[in-house]
Amino acid sequence: MFGWTGKLLHVDLTRGTCERREIPTDILHAYLGGRGLGVRLMRDYFRLGPFEPDLPLIFAVGPLCGTNSPTAARLSCVSRSPLTGTIYDCSAGGRFAWRMKAAGLDAVFITGKSAEPVFLSIDPARDELHPAQSLWGKGVKETVAALSGRGSVTTIGPAGENGVLYANIMMGEGNSIGRGGLGAVMGAKGLKAITAQGDGVTGVADKERFDAARGDVMRLFRASPVIFGELGIAEYGTPALVDLMAQRRMAPTENFRSTFFADSGNYSGPAIRKECGAKKEGCYGCPIQCKKASAAGEPLPEYETVNHFGALNGISNLHAIVKANSLCNELGLDTISAAATLSAFGEARGRFPDAAEVASLLADIAYRHDQGELLSLGSRRMAEVLGKPELSMSVKSLELPAYDPRGAYGMALAYVTSNRGGCHLRAYPISHEILRKPVPTDRFSFSGKARIIKIAEDVNAAVDSLVACKFAFFGATLEEYGELLSAVTGVEYGPESLKAIGERIYLTERFYNCANGFDRSQDTLPRRFFEEAGSAGEGIDVPPIDRARFDEELQKYYRIRGLDENGRFGDCNLLDELP
């Protein structure tokens, strides 16, 4: 077999066993890897609660991982989110995915609960569980350093150990499996870390075809101003978006009460380079190198993080924002949910946290100490406890990222149709509404957005299953990546077949969620966006979203998806009809 190894490592933490098993070839062909494979492997488990021992935590790579396909050294982690209750996947780069594949695995399927803390070592010669009492309680850096002799490391920090509902799983290089609280799932299982090493090589079916396809992808990357332009993400990382979002009047500010922050220039891409000596870094083998690190090698924050620890909390001090990012990485906290929860807390008490207070609050959250006990629950549960549920800016309990939906109506729709909650990456309409790629659309119109969002969700589900980076598709398309995939695997894939796979994955996720009680009532935005205007200025008016028009487009979306008016499935046998 080319591309895939066809192997899964089944780990039972309760029994302390590790066993390599075969993955049926037809499942690999139908779901690819990454998100799709993980979602398929959840089929018999999706009704289990996030902290039930039998719920699996799945790490899965894609068929392009292990080759020099651009941006494909990534993996997806799939389980059920303790923050949202939804089926959940989250992807991350770094070296771990590459080494897991080199160890001969397409997936690691972890179930059960260890009586004592353990770590898992993956090696072609022997997969084994080891005692980790000495690592429990340690931060991410110390854990990675202690295990680095065993290859690449992925670990949880104190937040995951203590069950913070938005705890991360951190990769040793600073990348994160960041949203939804899968670090808490890992912590509940008593699993501190996983190490991976191997020397296997991913076979390529047609080397000449692969080289030609890779050359096409790289030419499109170089031609993309968003990727390699003067102000592109290769140059400044995602904080290149700070100035653009300010100009568009859609930067969430003070818990989304406004959409413009006058001091955002303090943490823009150029400001970070000037103040922090930012240098290029990136995922293993990636030509884009969008990550940025300080002169001392410390990972620097991305756009979502600088906005949320900046504008969303009314903080303009860059160094305080960088410190907050570093603390989240060390403690194992999702920066978006942490900052958004602090912001909702700030509005509820009538005072947003200042730069000095943020650091102590983050530590309290990770250790669930004092006010951190309440804040560790996320903004929805926290706001409900405080009697002000309307202050949680979340969808399906997932805190919204740094694109105000009043400034991009496709984004508004995509937030509510996302299977994992308020996420910008499921459809990423910012690409056409703001970045004007591949073609521009009117950001203040719902016209045609239902169909655009549906197609984009299917495309992105396929991308997440390859597993490739979203940024690659500011240049390339599914046509080029389908050619790469065909060359690697020897199985023919084109754009339409990949979109069909993506649709299969999306519908499976939606079916799981509906079976767990999700429906139209959760597919909505906080009422603030329908009742309050954003910040007008420079000739731009940001009115509240027209709720009637929003509901109309959502119903169109349901019809296109084949769902009923409540967003549910008429066919209860959907899973029986899928591979």
From TrEMBL:
<dbReference type="InterPro" id="IPR036503">
    <property type="entry name" value="Ald_Fedxn_OxRdtase_N_sf"/>
</dbReference>
<keyword id="KW-0004">4Fe-4S</keyword>
<keyword id="KW-0411">Iron-sulfur</keyword>
<keyword id="KW-0408">Iron</keyword>
<protein>
    <submittedName>
        <fullName>Aldehyde ferredoxin oxidoreductase family protein</fullName>
    </submittedName>
</protein>
<dbReference type="InterPro" id="IPR051919">
    <property type="entry name" value="W-dependent_AOR"/>
</dbReference>
<dbReference type="InterPro" id="IPR013983">
    <property type="entry name" value="Ald_Fedxn_OxRdtase_N"/>
</dbReference>
<feature type="domain" description="Aldehyde ferredoxin oxidoreductase N-terminal">
    <location>
        <begin position="4"/>
        <end position="200"/>
    </location>
</feature>
<dbReference type="InterPro" id="IPR013984">
    <property type="entry name" value="Ald_Fedxn_OxRdtase_dom2"/>
</dbReference>
<dbReference type="InterPro" id="IPR001203">
    <property type="entry name" value="OxRdtase_Ald_Fedxn_C"/>
</dbReference>
<dbReference type="InterPro" id="IPR036021">
    <property type="entry name" value="Tungsten_al_ferr_oxy-like_C"/>
</dbReference>
<comment type="similarity">
    <text>Belongs to the AOR/FOR family.</text>
</comment>
<keyword id="KW-0479">Metal-binding</keyword>
<keyword id="KW-0560">Oxidoreductase</keyword>
<dbReference type="Pfam" id="PF01314">
    <property type="entry name" value="AFOR_C"/>
</dbReference>
<dbReference type="InterPro" id="IPR013985">
    <property type="entry name" value="Ald_Fedxn_OxRdtase_dom3"/>
</dbReference>
<dbReference type="Pfam" id="PF02730">
    <property type="entry name" value="AFOR_N"/>
</dbReference>
